[in-house]
Amino acid sequence: MANDRKLEILGYAAEHGPFSVTDLKDEFGFPHTTAHEYCRDLATAGLLHREQGKPAVYSPVDFDIHLSLEAISMAVTAESETIDYMLAEYDDGVIEEIVEIWERVETGDLTYREASATLDMVHADFLRLAAELDLFDR
Question: CA 102 to CA 130: how far, in whole Å?
Fold first, then answer.
């Protein structure tokens, strides 16, 4: 699971039990649509259970994690490949550019979409690189 925010949601679910998307919005400051998307992804992956009704209520699902050295190695390789891809696709200065523009995102001057457009990046690439650089956790 590449997105640290999804891990935060799973931790929240484990600690608090059933919750709504609004609870996540209040707790973490996620945009409502983003929180809903993450919960839907986690429910599809079988890591959260979605109760029927409105508003949707999600609850944790018990699961076991089995790690192998091969799985860890693959994750480290994937992270390295992400950075290499971004440098090849955009240019060597893309990391500095995204870190600089991130300040405007944090202050609310730009949305994620506006920031990715300003850098002339595919939006998904912008978010993926921001996640790899741990910018969401600053």
Answer: 9
How far apart are the C-alpha atoms of 44 and 59, rounded to whole Å? 13
Contact 60, 10 (CB under 8 A): yes
* Token pair listed for 35: 């929180």
Residue carrying structure tokens 């949707």: 56
Entry pTM: 0.48
Counts for the chain of helices (H) and strands (E), in that order: 7, 3
Angle between helix 94-106 and helix 123-132 axes, rounded to 10 deg:
90
Which tens digits make up the pLDDT trace of 62-104?
877 777 888 778 777 776 778 888 888 888 899 999 999 999 9
Q: Which residue matches tokens 């996620």? A: 30
